[in-house]
């Protein structure tokens, strides 16, 4: 039988990190030495105390379905964590636990956005935003995120993109792929626009623990915002738990109930032992120390990679204030980002992502992840420098 696919499938995008990783692994299988700077997950192990908590939970029988929105005690612990981080009193009923934070975004779109509505997405931005907005039949509207503006949101430009059809704004700070961090003033100006135009905000704060300079201001924490904001966060990045699959959202209680219904209709629940491990991540001082150690190491790597990239003629790299990516401008090298990313992998064995994998405004940039050792980052930047010597300039 020839399968015919629903039209919506043609609107679904992808995350090129997974594709580049697969290609890089094939090259490795063929004997090539590849340095992985494409990956969006911490390279460290999950802290041992969190692993121990999960093993204890399994031994204690956490092997069953849980309530769809999460185990109540874990929702309470998550609510305490959100309250402590944002200063906004948040109850367990406002929390939904999902197998990865992508579900929180998908469910927010499914629950709140009609076909034909406009959703403002950062560009460059995490590719899943645009993909899911397209998938549900809404219209993604690009909000350019520019290096000249330290990869922060240009608030006047955001204001100019809002129309009567705008339903939702997706914000992300610290940002993937640029490492840009919104200042408190930026966040206040964005909040004022959201309130003025009655927008729902999905505030993706999954990198909020990974800040090198300045502080994180949660959009959810600003006056008048908790009632219109879905705070999206998860365990993947802060505690190196990508494979455990646990994300969470904090939101108005009515919306949380609808997300529970969406969970009943999709995953049923997040894994029980993973949920119990989250309590250890949120509440143990040992887990906090592990986060601090990781942030210190990522800061060190950020400085190594930024300095090495800026020493290469034609490369201009902003020093990001958060997350674990750098997003250098490579236009002055004469290369376009797709050719350069392909050449770096195929010729010198450095896996990076083309900036346009994150939206049209990523043109002229590549994304490199710091989730690799300083030694490998140094080897990778040397290889990049070799490829980009004037003799190798592409016409
Ligand atoms: N949001 C951003 C900005 C991300 O970069 C990622 C993962 O790379 C996610 C959300 C999703 O994370 P997870 O589904 O592992 O919680």
Instruction: Going across the biggest sheet, name each strand in turn.
Output: 2-8-7-6-5-3-4
Shape: globular
Q: What does the oligomeric state look like here?
A: single chain
- Which structural class should the secondary elements be placed in? alpha/beta
Question: Could you explain how this protein is built, in words?
Answer:
The protein has 395 residues and is α/β, with parallel strands linked by helices. The protein folds into two domains: 7-45 and 288-387, Aspartate Aminotransferase, domain 1 (Alpha-Beta Complex), CATH 3.90.1150; 64-283, Aspartate Aminotransferase, domain 2 (3-Layer(aba) Sandwich). It is built from twelve helices and twelve strands. α7 (184-196) links the parallel β5 and β6. α2 (48-59) crosses α9 (272-283) and α4 packs across α8 (253-264). The mean pLDDT is 96. The structure holds pyridoxal-5'-phosphate. Pyridoxal-5'-phosphate binds next to loops.
Pick out its properties:
395 residues, Aspartate Aminotransferase, domain 1, single chain, alpha/beta, binds pyridoxal-5'-phosphate, 2 domains, seven-stranded mixed β-sheet, Aspartate Aminotransferase, domain 2
Q: SSE layout and pairings?
A:
Layout: H1 16-29, E1 35-36, H2 48-59, H3 72-86, E2 95-98, H4 102-112, E3 118-123, H5 127-135, E4 139-144, H6 155-161, E5 166-172, H7 184-196, E6 200-204, E7 229-234, E8 247-250, H8 253-264, H9 272-283, H10 285-310, E9 325-326, H11 337-348, E10 350-351, E11 353-354, E12 366-369, H12 374-387
Parallel strand pairs: 1-10, 3-4, 3-5, 5-6, 6-7
Antiparallel strand pairs: 2-8, 7-8, 9-12, 11-12
Helix pairs in contact: 2-9, 3-9, 4-5, 4-8, 9-10, 10-12
Pyridoxal-5'-phosphate (PLP) binds next to loops.
